[in-house]
């Protein structure tokens, strides 16, 4: 009897050890593109803490909300934001129907390929470009246009489709969070209707989980039925302090985990990590000029300055693309 009891106890210990090792291996495999280090450990520790039933930091699945910025956090944002490239291409496509653009700025410079002059036109010039390329049509027409464009649009620097210029470690992180019953959202300064057609196929994030900037829309009944017409007026800018507002308006719950890469994500991370209980805030730092791009404080796109300086004080983890990511793109 005593031998049987001892054998049973040993077997129990062995089974427990195997189960623990299997769980640890599963965690490592789930984040296989992450090098072992502080960033990866912070993710695993956080998820373990908030999913341990009965634990001090346990969070019910319904409240496990995670938000991700898009540009520079989930996919490449250099040499310019993808949606800006879309707007430029749309102006060029529409140009034959607008001969007046040949003598009107900023369209004249854009059509001539003078990007410095386009940049010099400032926010007003870019707003004009966005206005003509994103409005004056039904939302269904815009969705079709954006969907068709994204299928073939390539990054001029990498030569890959924009939808292939996505970060494998972040895809793994999204899947890891979802496997642990997190509801994952994109919260981006990009246009909400520009992103919704392709985020599910690209990231596994459905359109209803996308929060972004938007133009005003008007409900109109036509001979073909009701449509939503896109107006040339901004309704909401989901960037900087607008991100917490967008989160509340669309999600209705405060995130417990948030991921960004620029000062435009500062308030989103601040909102998430100053809430009650265990939280996680992480910032992707583009410091790998060989495998991707190296930029931060001086960049026009993905400007990272204040958020990097305040990361330690705020308790945010800086993710080094160079040191923390074993691979960057899925096809590596």
TrEMBL record:
Residues 1-26 form the signal peptide. This is Phosphoserine phosphatase. PANTHER family: PHOSPHOSERINE PHOSPHATASE. The keyword Signal applies. It comes from the Bacteria. The keyword Signal applies. Keywords: Signal.
């Amino acid at each position: 009897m005593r031998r049987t009891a001892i054998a049973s106890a040993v077997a129990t210990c062995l089974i427990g050890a195997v189960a623990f090792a299997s769980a640890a291996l599963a965690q490592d495999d789930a984040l296989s593109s992450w090098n072992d280090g502080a960033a990866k450990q912070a993710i695993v520790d956080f998820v373990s803490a908030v999913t341990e039933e009965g634990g001090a930091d346990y969070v019910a699945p319904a409240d496990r909300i995670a938000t991700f910025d898009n540009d520079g956090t989930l996919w490449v944002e250099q040499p310019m934001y993808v949606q800006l490239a879309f707007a430029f291409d749309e102006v060029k496509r529409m140009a034959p129907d607008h001969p007046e653009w040949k003598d009107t700025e900023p369209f004249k410079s854009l059509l001539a390929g003078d990007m410095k002059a386009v940049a010099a036109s400032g926010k007003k010039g870019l707003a004009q470009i966005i206005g003509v390329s994103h409005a004056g049509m039904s939302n269904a027409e815009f969705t079709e246009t954006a969907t068709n464009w994204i299928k073939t649009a390539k990054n001029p620097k990498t030569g890959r489709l924009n939808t292939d210029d996505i970060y494998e470690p972040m895809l793994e992180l999204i899947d890891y969070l979802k496997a642990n019953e997190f509801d994952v959202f994109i919260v981006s300064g990009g246009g909400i209707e520009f992103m919704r057609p392709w985020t599910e196929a690209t990231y596994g994030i459905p359109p209803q989980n996308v929060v972004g900037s938007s133009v005003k829309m008007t409900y109109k009944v036509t001979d073909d039925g009701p449509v939503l017409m896109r107006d040339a007026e901004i309704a909401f800018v989901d960037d900087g302090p607008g991100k917490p507002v967008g989160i509340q308006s669309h999600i209705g719950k405060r995130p417990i985990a948030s991921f960004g890469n620029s000062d435009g994500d500062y308030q989103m991370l601040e909102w998430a990590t100053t809430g009650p209980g265990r939280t996680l805030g992480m910032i992707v730092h583009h410091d790998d000029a060989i495998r991707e791009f190296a930029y931060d404080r001086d960049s026009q796109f993905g400007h990272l300055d204040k958020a990097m300086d305040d990361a330690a004080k705020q308790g945010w983890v800086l993710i080094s693309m160079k040191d923390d990511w074993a691979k960057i793109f899925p096809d590596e």
